[in-house]
Amino acid sequence: MTDDREQRNIEALEAGGLPLAAQERLAELRRRGGAFFTSDLSVNEFLLAREAGFEPVTQVMGSSVYHVGWQQMPWASTWTYGDGGTAELGVLTDAWNEARRLAVGRLEEEARLAGADAVVGVRLDRSRGAWLEELVEFKAFGTAARSTRYDLGDGPVVSNLSGQEFAKLFAHGFWPVGLVADTSVTYVVSSWSTQRAQTGLFAQLRNQELTDYTQGLYAARANAMRRLERQAHELHADGIVGVQFEQHQEEREVDQNGKRTDLVVTVHVIGTAIVELAAAEPPPTYIAYGL
Question: H or E stretch including 119?
């Protein structure tokens, strides 16, 4: 019996779902009903959400630990550069995006099993190389809430808005249609002029911009924002609010026809896609989108 349950756990996770214990806990929570709940909402957030017709159900989460495959780096002989010496690292980019998609999908599944209509205040924690360099980890947390005024369909809408922001948005005739997010990992190859600026005889005596690095930061941001906006368009959104932007840089020392310092730029961006409601319309049914 134990082996059978473990196999079913593995199959559920491989399908992008939840382990059996989580499914059973949430099914029991929904069956019991009642007014008791848990949330990470502040008192102000809780009261404003109640005024807008939403009552918290339970805290929900999703997680994914994802193995990163082999990534070809620029010093390999078959590498080809993009314009201006920058290129997106597809394996690393895809790993981050798939890990987040699985984590947010499991959070959404927990909310659905709990009978919620929305998840507010979603926050993402991520890490890489904490215990193995080849792993990335995403964790998503939020508070599932139920509407007391509308029938919003079967799928919960997920947003990174706080309880206060969610209530204000609703009160002014807007409705979230989904969480949109993207990650881009971009490699910046140091040009001869940048190398000279860093190592030349008078390098420390002059103020000068390292334009390769500047261009790389812009390229990484553009990659992530382009895909973020594409997700919002696929949700038929009018815009994106609550956009959060994080950026990290890592230097890479390369010895290829002389030493140079390249840069790896990682950009994470997340926001909530919204639509404006007609005055007499209830909030629309959530349009599912796989992050």
Answer: strand 118-128
Residue 143: closest CA among 63, 62, 53, 58: 58
- pLDDT tens, 123-134? 888 887 644 468
Strand partners, 128: 136
Q: φ and ψ at 72, to 5 degrees?
A: -70, 130
- DSSP helix/strand/coil, 287: coil
Other residues' Cβ atoms within 10 Å of the Cβ of residue 276: 11
85: left (phi over 0), alpha (psi -120 to 50) or beta: left
**Closest to 182 in 3D by CA, of 236, 231, 240:** 231
Cβ count near 203 (within 10 Å): 12
DSSP string, 182-197: EEEEEEEPPPHHHHHH
- Which two three-digit tokens encode residue 241? 């609010």
Q: Is the pLDDT of residue 117 over 70?
A: yes
DSSP-based three-state secondary structure for 138: strand
Q: Which amino acid is at 51?
A: E
Distance CA 127, CA 258 (A): 33
